[in-house]
Write a structure and sequence with these properties.
The chain is built from 33 helices and 21 strands. By secondary structure, it is α/β, with parallel strands linked by helices. The strands form four sheets. The chain has an eight-stranded mixed β-barrel, surrounded by four helices.
Amino acid sequence: MLSTDTLLPGPTWTDERLTASRSATAATSPFAFGETTRVGPVAPAESAVPALEPFRLSHAAARLPRILVMLVCLLYLAGAAYGWGTPGLARVMGDFGLSGAALTAAVSCFVYGSVSRGRTRPAWLCFGLSSLMVGVGNGIWGWYECVLGRSLPSPSIADYAFLFFAPPAILGLLLLANRPRNAAGWLCLGLDGWLIAGSLLTLSWSLALARTAAGDEHSSLRLAVGLAYPLLDILLISMVLGLRFRRPGSNRAAVHTAIVGLALTVLCDAVFTSQSFKDAYHSGELLDAGWFCGSMLLAWAPWAGAGTGDGPADRAGPPGATAASRRPRVASTFSALTPYAATGVCTVGLLYNALGQHHLDRFVLITSCTVVLALILRQGIMLLDNLSLAQKLSHQEHHFRSLVQGSSDVIMIADPDGVLRYVSPAATGVYGRPAEELVGTRLPEMVHPDDLGHVLWEVQRYLARTPAHGRAAEPTARIECRVRSGAGEWMDVESTVNRYRDGLIFNSRDVSERVRLQAQLEHNAFHDALTDLPNRALFLQRSRAALGGGSDQGSEVAVLFVDLDGFKAVNDTAGHQVGDELLVQAARRLQDAVRSGDTVARLGGDEFAVLLVGEVDREQAFGIAERLRAAVAAPFCVGNEEHSVAASIGIAFADRGAAPEAAADLLRSADLAMYQAKKHGKDRVHEYSPELRTELRRRTELDQRLRVAVREGQFTLLHQPIVDLRSGAVRALSAQARWRSAQGLLLTPAEFLRAAGGGERVLRFGRWMVEQAVQQAAERGGGLPVAVRLSTRVLTAPGLYETLDAALHRTGLAPSRLVVELSDDGTGVAEGRPQGFEELVQHLGRLKERGVGLVLDGLGGGTTPLSGLRRLPVDALKLERAVVDGMPESAFLRTLASSVLRIGQELGLDTVAEGVDTPEQAELLRRLGCAKGQGQHFAGALDEGELAALLADARTSEDNSA
């Protein structure tokens, strides 16, 4: 583990912001690849201390049986060292004690083999059978020696039992060992086995086996038994030394313990063979302690590991193992040393045989020659394998270099000190610096100082994720930072970090374009594309932040809603391109008119909003609003033309302690105040008051009631007769709508519609009146025309002509029986648009072509100036109620009425008077030449029943007169 001084020899790795954290934490090198102390914020779940607790408990629990085994072995060793006190007890412990230890090992292995379901189960059953044979052999030996009190015959049943000790043990070792993966591996395994066995056989033959063979010339059975046991032991020890036991996971401890127990047993067998020639062995001696310990180790072996050895780790290898570590190999490092060690043992056997005898034993010579030939053959195989591996390595290295050098990503290898030891050629294209220039550079020197702390923390976090207690290591880590290029600019780089021996591999790529694109997308998501001002989303976000941060005493959070008056006219006349440029200039003026900390946003169309935060009160807010209004009022020069617009501004102040969620309501309040500014003449500033929201709710409620009334038939249509002033005959009917209240009263909707605010409500109501008037006229029959009064706004609205035409087609009513009275709604010529009168003329022309009668109501008003009368295709003029009401008392009104009636007569138009409620008014109008009239003097608004009765009486009177 590297210290901080090793990692940070100079000030280039650190800055002032990291000094405090390093002084408080035992920091280590971010590029130290062992167990490191974590620096920086670490989640509690990643702490190393809690993760070790379960392991400590299981380790302590597993230590007790091991201590008991060691204690039993030490007690037996002490007893054997002191002869057990008496010769009888020594014989019992030397025979039945060994038998009990072997039987304990057999039971332990059998039990483990029965409960285990792993691949090692057959091996432990073999070890159990081997120990059972030893236990039987020692039990028979004890029966003869301790119970019968006589020497064991030679050969005996115990000898045959001992002979069956080695074969099951050899089979168990073969089951535990790693199997070769190719023919060369099997051949090398056989050669290694013979090298070890031949060498041991040469040495043992020279030391003892030759005398054993010479001493039993007359008993073939005794000779076979005497040589079989040592030879099987030699084969067993050859398996222990030659086989490769690389079982991963917790089974490794079990395998090693079993191997040590078997090796200790074989070693004691070799010492016993040497002592048997001198008749120096007696039961209960120190040699028995070796057998006892070997059996006890074998009894403990299956339980030494925590698992069965057949888990996922057995199949996949240890965590972090690479493909190279699991590659099939002909021989391991230990196997490579085996031939030389075996040759040395064989040489010792030859020297002992040659120096100790006058002639060289033929058996030793033949065995030694076969060992030498096996060594030569094995070395040849190893040489071929090495050549093959060298070729594969060269091919893989060439392949790797081609990939690295041809990659567009920069691959760098840094040592634990952060010094770059390798940089791929792609650095020239990515960083603008040659790879040779970067080699030897300390990686922190390339990182932007603001990103250095983040990079250090990410590297240390990655290194701290080491595999421990079943936790897998983090395979890679991704780090984004800014790196200095060869041109001295900072570029955004994304690096994938991997472990490499005692360093790190950085696979880096330039992501500057992606970072810029992400920043641009984020900017576009919160800014208007035309003016580059904040949009509604960012405005509301900043408003919520301002409300959430609170305000000091004497300061306010205010929102100004700005709408450009007259922009639609500019957009329609000059075109959308000019309108867009005007919006851009207006946005700049609005930004210049506010303070540096305020926010100007475009909400859409010609609507803007301004957020005032900080030290601003009501007086300052109105001052800023006036600056905004004055800035917008100045002429805009777009192209070679000047255009003028105005600004209607609404102001809303946030309440003290308002929640961030109130940001949308605050903007809506400013919007309501802006509409009040428009309503009061435009180009002005208006402050929000709670009454505006109350009025809005009332209008919304009235609008809803109007929709329900039209949909559910709460409106009804009445008709007032229009009579001939000279004859008194009914000449037409005037359709008048009434609203049937919940109490059954019929109320005029005029006041209701005016309170509802007009707009779309009036248009829907006008279309309904046309449809109802046409349908009832068709159902009524006869030849009386029906007149429907429509305002200029309704008449020029899209869809009215289509509604009227569809109603005539549907009912079959003659167009001449429908009369449209054009009334002034007080808005002027189509809301001040110059082309409004032209639109009115076009709509009236279409109605005239359809055959609909037209009556002009309110001659000389804003909608119908006298100069435009010659272009309006009307059939009649109508005197207003206000003129008719005052005629008997006012000479001026009589003169005015006379002039209008004379104009109609001279133009060939019919004349109608409205509001004829008294006989005096009717007589005066007859004298002035008015043709028709309507009012209470003749009849009021009648429903269908009353109207039918009136018309029937009128027809009866006409018939009587005739």
